[in-house]
Amino acid sequence: MSMPKDSGKNAAAESPAVAESKIQPAKGKLGVMTVGMGSVATTLIAGVEAVRKGLAKPIGSLTQMGTIRLGKRTDARTPLIKDFVPLADLHDVVFTGWEIFPENMYEAAEHAAVLDRDHLKSIKPFLEAIKPMPAVFDQHYVKRLNGTHVKQGKSKCDLAQQLRSDIQAFKSQVDRVVVLWAGSTEIFLEPSAVHQSIEAFEKGLVDNDPNIAPSQIYAYAALKEGVPFANGAPNLTVDLPCMQELSKLTGAPICGKDFKTGQTFMKTVLAPAFKARMLGVAGWYSTNILGNRDGEVLDDPESFKTKEESKLGVLDFILQPELYPDLYKDIYHKVRINYYPPRGDNKEGWDNIDIFGWLGYPMQIKVDFLCRDSILAAPIALDLVLFLDLAQRSSELKHLGIQEWLSFYFKSPMTAEGLYPEHDLFIQSMKLKNTLRHIMGEDLITHLGLEYYD
């Protein structure tokens, strides 16, 4: 009998050469504009330069070190992702950005204290040459910070136009641009009338609507300029009808929000394992201590509320208590974040998980993840920049708006209206790689594999 192929043949698949012809080549310079040039941005920028100089390896970056299987297992076709899809080369990436403090990147990196001084000294001239532009900032939305290097404008519309001018000036120096939010967590906001259409949002900019936070002004400016936007924080930013409409209109891809780095990364690994084995979860208590600027901002209850919403939703979507009430209906999920200055960027995420198994007998799991927040975030930021640039050069992906295949990188993935988000890290990984196979005209991988036993 004839069995389905392990590769999951896509009937509509084109030849790789034809598929690649529908993706514009990554010619010239890719400009990266970071909103916020603190711990994450300086770690990203310094890290890319260290890799370019051969001083370090891009560990943690799927685009740089990851491989992708093509065809059957017996075909032995496993290229590096960067050799399979036409990504921008790291040597072609150029950085600039906005920051509420005037320090150059070397000074900011020293202040962040993520990378050691010997590491920074080897690339000091490169970092010193990158000076931030004044930022759009309003202390109402981030109460624990007091910016001194900020733009002045008579309205939020005026500020948006200033950002568009900054983007236009940078676009004249490079070939393509991506904007990345690497700034602080804003206060908790919910979608309102001003967010329901582009017209309503633009009127809100003129009227200084308080429901429009700075991150939304940056997103609007980027999307109006046809520039992809990635959000590394849990702020209400592109997850709005007006932004999704604008993204599709201008062909500037968007994705989820809040980088999946430490504790939530572990949850999206462990929770799928419990569900796969039909083990119950009675409670999951998570607490964090960190001492960087992010920790200081999150010490404010309004900013913490934004982060809490992002972190709490993960388990419900993975465990699906409505489908498995005996296992997950009564789960008690608690998340805490505490500012503790001595730790700096070295965050500790501690989890106590109360599970139960056969006949309801209880068990416990303890996880203590002593992680480096920005070290985990920097390769995520790099991958998103390169993949968003790829998406914009792909005729198939460019005008979709939301790039759900990039859910792999976020605590809060975005989806089309009416769809629940996939939080399971392994489903997200499969979705990402199958999207790359699809746009390159390769067969999708289903892992069925029955033909090996036929």
TrEMBL record:
Highest taxon of source: Bacteria
GO MF terms, alphabetically ordered: inositol-3-phosphate synthase activity
GO aspect biological process, one term: phospholipid biosynthetic process
Sequence similarity: Belongs to the myo-inositol 1-phosphate synthase family.
Record's protein name: Inositol-3-phosphate synthase
SUPFAM superfamilies: Glyceraldehyde-3-phosphate dehydrogenase-like, C-terminal domain, NAD(P)-binding Rossmann-fold domains
Annotated spans, Disordered: 1-20
Highest classification ranks of the organism: Bacteria, Pseudomonadati, Acidobacteriota, Terriglobia, Terriglobales
Domain Myo-inositol-1-phosphate synthase GAPDH-like: 262-374
InterPro entries recorded: Myo-inos-1-P_Synthase, Myo-inos-1-P_Synthase_GAPDH, NAD(P)-bd_dom_sf
